[in-house]
Write a structure and sequence with these properties.
two-stranded antiparallel sheet; 279 residues; Growth Hormone, Chain: A; mainly alpha
Length: 279
């Protein structure tokens, strides 16, 4: 497992070396030609216009924002910052970190062997990776809000189904036992959840964070939202053993409720950012 992770990290380093700097970074460094070349690949019809917009932003002193510039009248922060924070928090509150962190232990708890539990976990990870590829193909064709709304709805159903199957488990000593039908249903439900998350909330949240904020506050605001995302990840991961001790159906039922809240948030409060030029 550790060798696999090391190889993945090495691959990540190689891929990052091929990534271009953003036009903003290139212009900050004085590389106007590099910025023009990159924009020509992205939007060949408006290169000069985009260069002028970026240069005006840079010469206007929009080099970054302090935390104080995120403050507003709504509970101490600007409304758009709260939108980003809630978006980042909901991505973790649906319980994806539990699926990634505790998958092996969960399947062993309900009677699967160590080898079978590991195989199931690997399949779930591969399903998530494949789903992200699908997301890349869809994100610029379907609205962000629609993807997130559909994803949250599917996750809510999958998590509620998972909670229902775990509520049917019987106790034998220190183990929970699912019958064959319930075990199969639980496997299907958790992979449906992984697919829904991988196509929608997994990648789309990170894309939208950059699109929600203007240049003047983007770096700081995205940093705050990212911190919230990881703190929520920590909270969900740390509280799962406590919830699971009272019953897996309680834990997954709670995540299903958060998925319903995420659906309402995406449908009613989240602005659409597809097609928006970064400014």
């Amino acid at each position: 497992m550790f060798v696999g992770v090391a190889l993945s990290a090495a691959g990540f380093v190689l891929i990052v070396r091929w990534l271009p700097s953003s036009p903003y970074d290139l212009l900050r460094a004085g590389d106007t030609e590099g910025a023009q070349a990159l924009l020509a690949r992205l939007e060949p019809d408006s290169v000069d216009q985009q260069i002028n917009v970026i240069q005006r932003a840079l010469t206007g002193g929009q080099q970054g924002a302090s935390l104080g510039q995120l403050r507003g009248r709504r509970f101490g922060l600007r409304p758009i910052v709260w939108t980003g924070i809630l978006l980042a928090a909901f991505q973790q509150l649906v319980g994806i970190s539990v699926v990634k962190t505790y998958s092996n232990a969960i399947w062993q708890t309900v009677g699967f062997s160590t080898t079978s539990a590991f195989t199931i976990s690997m399949v779930t990870v591969l399903v998530s990776i494949a789903s992200t590829v699908v997301a890349i193909l869809l994100m610029d064709r379907v609205g962000r809000r629609m993807l997130l709304s559909i994803g949250a709805a599917v996750m809510a159903v999958a998590l509620a189904t998972l909670a229902w199957y775990f509520s049917m488990a019987t106790v034998s000593g220190e183990e929970l036992i699912l019958d064959r039908a319930a075990g199969t249903g639980a496997l299907i439900a958790i992979n449906v959840f992984a697919v829904a998350f991988g196509i929608t909330w997994g990648p789309v949240m990170w894309l939208m964070l950059s699109e929600l904020f203007d240049t003047g506050v983007r770096t700081t605001a995205v940093g705050v939202c990212t911190a919230v995302n990881w703190l929520t990840n920590f909270g969900v991961s740390r509280t799962f053993p406590l919830l699971a001790g009272r019953g897996l159906e309680l834990a997954y039922g709670l995540y299903a409720m958060f998925a319903v809240a995420a659906f309402l948030f995406a449908l009613l409060a989240l602005p659409e950012t597809r097609g928006r030029k970064l400014s």
